[in-house]
Amino acid sequence: SAMALFLHFGFFLLLSFDIAGPARRDVLELADADFDYLATEHETMLVKFYAPWCGHCKKLAPDFEKAATKLKGTVQLAKVDCTANSELCARFGVTGYPSLKIFRSGRDAGPYDGPRSAEGIVQVMKKQSGPDSVLLRSNSDLEQFVNHYEASIVGLFSPDSSRLSEFLKAASLLREQFRFAHSSNLSLGQEYNATGECVLLFRPPRLSNKFEESVVVFSDYLTITSLRRFIRDNIFGLVPHLTVENMERLRVKDLLTVYYDLDYVHNVRGSNYWRNRVMLVASKFRGRGLSFSVANRKDFEAEIQEEFGLGPDPGLPVATIRTRLGLKYTMREEFTRDGRSLERFLEDYFSGRLKRFIKSEPVPEKNPGPVKVVVAESFAEIVDDPNKDALILFYSPLCQHCKKLEPVYAQLASELSSDPDVVVAKMNAADNDVPLGYDVQGSLSRDSQTSLTPDTSSSSSGGTPRCFQASRET
Asked: Which positions are catalytic?
């Protein structure tokens, strides 16, 4: 009957709402009127300042909601719609969306600079809950604290020590990145040949190996800067585990990464089987300016295939090198269990025999139009011609701004086509590596940029590229 149909339909709507609702309800909605009152109720809170029309905000929303559910009862996640609460957003200096800020008992504790995946937010905010540094009283407290998936930094100081106050300041500043604890029981350091006041850095037990010490002692003059430097130089060790969360810190140096089926949650022994072989080789090339790491291939599969040109998982580890300048090298030989193939790859790298990998579309067979189509392989020949000026447009096929600019750019190229000393070109920056020296910024899915290369007769590279920032009209 019509009544029965109505009741069933109403039940369906109610059921659908109940399924979709919990994750959203775990994110607290705050406004101008109630922010101060509600925020002070939470010791630690992560607040997302957003605008409903913002594409990046919409992309973040599902991960933010998942993180809120996982952190329920530990850390509160909240959101503020800045289009409806402009006074509140102006008060906290919000100028872009989404902006994430950490609050402690209602006070702004600073920006959230961590990963924006659900798991990344959970990991960072768990570190933000509780004290900046955990007080340890006994050996059993110490053992329990350092027996953790991540590294641990433990300070041993006399109760009235000035070093302790400096250590606690550092812990407050760095707690988002590292785990801190402290104790006034100086005897806790005896097992590690540490006497007197010091800081002990415990590398994760899962990464324990015979090639390096698991505990590093810092007993120099302690300041926030010196402690930060000590942690930076020692926490990762010889061959750290590269993750999506720490890759920005590790990739500030020239870095070799070996990818394989690494899983330190379910298969520590199997993960260390290949890592130990990498460590053996890494120890032979230590001090030559190249850092090493291992990673779970599944976490970087798209990057491995798109950025390094490697095919599907062969069942064995694969190795790549990415320099801090963006040069890329791929190990083509099959990875051997004795590590010899990796050694040969490194010997070729250090001797300069390796050909770097350049992601490039095929060079067009014909290129008759006024706008020359450039790919990575033809860039030097067309754009870096020392006898010509070149205007090059870097674009993405999915970018709407780029499509809007296309007819204007084509008209410009037609008007300049009679000048033999000028080249107007374009390159798909999503499918071709952008050469060094061309500072293409922004998301390739939405931004277009142009760079002007003036003719410099004394330079074989076509001169220094300059960003074209004038009007986008002909």
From this structure: 54, 57, 399, 402
